[in-house]
Write a structure and sequence with these properties.
single chain, 587 residues, alpha+beta, 6-stranded antiparallel sheet, 6-stranded mixed sheet, 17 strands, 41% helix
Amino acid sequence: MRFDGGRPDVAAVERMTDRLAARGPDGRGMWSQGAVALGHRRLKIIDLSERGAQPMTDAQNGLTGVFNGCIYNYQELRRKLEGLGHRFFSTSDTEVLLKAYRQWGTGCVEHLFGMFAFAIAEHDTGRLVLARDRLGIKPLYLTEGADRLRFASTLPALLAGGGVDTSLDPVAVHQYLSWHATVAAPRTVLAGVRKLPPATVRVVERDGRYQEHRYWQPSYTRRSAYAGMDAADWRDAVLDALRTAVRRRMVADVPVGVLLSGGLDSSLIVALLAEEGQTDLSTFSVGFESENGEEGDEFSYSDLVAKRFATDHHQLMIPSDRVSTGLDGAVEAMSEPMVSHDTVAFHMLSEQVAKELTVVQSGQGADEILAGYHWYPAMAAVEREQEPETYADVYFDRPHADLARMLQPHMLVGHDASGDFVRAHMAVDGAETALDAALRLDVHVMMVDDPVKRVDNMTMAWGLEARVPFLDHELVELAAACPPELKLAQGGKGVLKDAGRQVLPREVVDRPKGYFPVPAIRHMAGPVLERVREALSAPEARQRGVFREPYVAELLAAPDAHRTKRGANALWQVALLEIWLQTHGIR
């Protein structure tokens, strides 16, 4: 979008659109009028005809839009809009979005149940509206200058357009090294790229002035609507909400499968789909060779669930030597650097699943919304005034003081940027206890830019759409109001385990928690270490000079010995940033 009255650089938009081909292999479209140009790559899931193609123009209402994601309640909304006098030319959820915007303006987002990032251009005013779903499941990256705004579903697509400031943002690097590679919206590691925060609408006027507003934030308090509920009531409420969430995510004009890890969360999805009467359900699991005595698969549990519910089950066992060869493809698919071991696993699994299906459901989000991680009991034990320091102690990879020996002086910030962010977030009203404040931070910040982003990037790199029922916004609202003691019970996710016992074998519910390791990365197996050494010794790395050379040498001298406070390999965290920058041509 141009702000100076000039025409948009359509060639740049073409390049950006082409860079999104993997996310949308089924169609390509362009539209330009006045100061706005829109490009789209399509993944056909709802209304497989060309009537559902994008960019979609509603000439009667003077709107053109592009949309990534799925509106799960689009059929109900369509019926409501038809009752209000709207007429439809397609059966797509994209057209429902355009009509909803015409009916309710930016308030349309409050009517949408789903995952989405969209842009709608108003023909008569030249106004552009950008919006992102409540939990940030679908990404939206921005790069702005004095005379233009560009946006895309991936950061590499923005780079393809050119003219992006690719210098590193020191505050973002601080967050990257503090929070297991998470960088909170609106920042990215690149100074010239930002991302629209979740649950946010931005309205951009013709001259570039804009307003943003956040349209959703659940209260992490005990609301009167749930007064008098006991543990059994909460168990039933959570199970019913999850049942609704899973049913909503069956909406598609193509088959829907499940990524089945064998853990409680994905197993529950399989059980509830079976309960809905879905037969011949395709399920998929991935595992890795053991390294250093650490197991790399959980097939015994996924096999148990697949057998119990008679799914069409697929196993993928990946040998360690394939991890290093698969690593570069996974890094290329990353919109931002991600250090979690399962990134490579999701990328390789998605490649295989995409040969069979276009849509899957996945279990991400349950641990964040229902307190499944090991650091939550410590948060529950402190008073509100102690919460930021306790959170930093149990969650951060390292304290602020450690960064001085890691980073070159030009990359250091003079204050504890990551700690300051946490303190500010936790001080906001609307969280009743220290645990509530920690869960709110994890669900609405940390989760969005770690597991949620990871799943989107790795699946969509193969044209595979992953739907996450645990992030249904009504289920998230319910979980936020659930008493902390019910979430913390039974070693975490107690209320969900109680729900699981209603529909799953007990050995799946009562098993030890798994963390889906990729041993070849965790322990720096030979080929992975070779790739790390190559990246850190490259001319680009030396020229960039992000990390102090003595610190890097110390890590390389003992690749498996240096761990963050949370147990991650410190060398991998340092190297992955450099590998990502080099992979995306950033010098």
